[in-house]
Amino acid sequence: MTWELSPTSVRLWWQGDDLPVLQTLMEWAWQNREGVYYLPGVHRTSDEREHFWKRLITHTGLLQTFFQHNLVMPREKPSFQLITVDEGTFFSVAFQKLKGDLPQLKQLKEKFNKGIDSVKTISMPSWIYPGAAKRFGAQAKEEQNWTGPAKIAFLLLFAPIACTFFELPQTHGKANWLFLAPEIKDLQSFAENFNLVWEGSYQDFLSVKVQGLGDAGLRFACAYAGRKIEKQLQADKIYIVAMGRVGYYQGQNVRKLILPLTPSRTSIKRYALLMKHLPNTFKVLKKTAEEENGPEATHWIRRPTARGRIAENLVQQQAWYLNLHQPTSWQVDALENQRKKQQDNISLDRLWFQNLERERRAIMDLANEEAMWDSPEEQAFVAIFQQTLRNLLNRENEALSRGGSRTLWDRWEDRVENIRRDLMRAKTRELNRKFVVEFLAAGGGNKLLTQQKEVLWHFLNHPFDWKKARDLALVALVTFTDKRLAKPEAKEEVATHE
User: Fold this and answer.
1) Is the pTM value of this prediction over 0.70?
2) Reduced to 3 states, what is the DSSP secondary structure of residue 72?
3) What local confidence, expressed as pLDDT, does residue 461 receive?
4) Which ranges of 329-465 does DSSP label H, i.e. alpha helix?
5) Per-chain mean pLDDT for the chain
6) Do the Cβ atoms of 93 and 81 come closer than 8 Å?
């Protein structure tokens, strides 16, 4: 067999029957080592070839999307692997080993025995069209597999290899995964930059967990832009498909959301800063690990709360702080689970705000990046609001001299909660203006307010930008700090250990 590569095609020539050649290609491209997928086109290092846990992200992603059903790709029961980060620090990952022949190889003899140039339309199994697949059971009689020419079918047998996989937050206790593929305009550039998303180390397990489709798309764009990043910071179009269980059909994962995305230069640049300050981190398990975490796991992986909302804003080319008071749809279930575990009967809104407060330092550092802002007026508004907060804190501190059993921390915590609630109730321009004016009056005048009053009134009176005033006020509230507010003993962080 001979071959020729160009930026837009791969051409192959061979003599003899098609089937043996196609079978050789498929057996090489799709391999099973120790029950875990080994794809030479993706797993290019000797470490990935020899250590199966370095291939688990691709392996699990394939089983959760393309080969999700046991009738398509038989697999064993879930097992666990302890991943060592360093001495005394390790976490567990759950995975299922493959059992039996790979489905790609099963199709060859039956589907391509008449050659790849056959004009006959052939039917292919449902896994090549994931999420809109033919269902198993009673409904199967009414649904059809993919049909089309043999040439296209053969290409689709390789399609999953060109995808990158990320793990979304769970919903209703069920796993959600997404697969992502860029629009390929240059095969050589794709081959060189495709693997930059993963490092082939335990750090990959930090990268695979995302808070939403925008989080995944921009993470891929930052890596895939690769060597072009210094020149133009522009990614090609990316297609993202989220898959998971839904209430109306529990038999297999279905498509829950599809996002075609073309990240802008600004979005990529700002997302790189977001990942700098709000990356996934290893966290120590506070309690004895439950059975599903593995008996010896010491750590779990935490996804920052704020990153999900900020990434969605960047994808839509909106201000990074827009609607920071609201979780994304992918984060609601995890938030509800956290509330149940804490058992203190607080609202989801307040719990979300508390999670943001735990990330105060990171959000503050992000807000200090000039590249995150569209205009200096936004930063000026935050500064005005925080100066007023400092004036209010001074008053609370003075009130301590009059006696009472409450600490400054307790008094300030109540004050912050009242401000937060008033902000959430300011759902119109008039209500928002009323709140801000009363808030500034309560804090008293200050030099910064006098100097920047035009900025303040621009946001409060603008027909659209008035919403930014509320969101900027929340940023100021979350990131406000003072040395007098030394925290008492930190609250134990409760999370769903996925």
Assistant:
1) yes
2) coil
3) 86
4) 332-342, 348-358, 360-367, 376-399, 408-425, 429-443, 447-451, 453-461
5) 84
6) yes
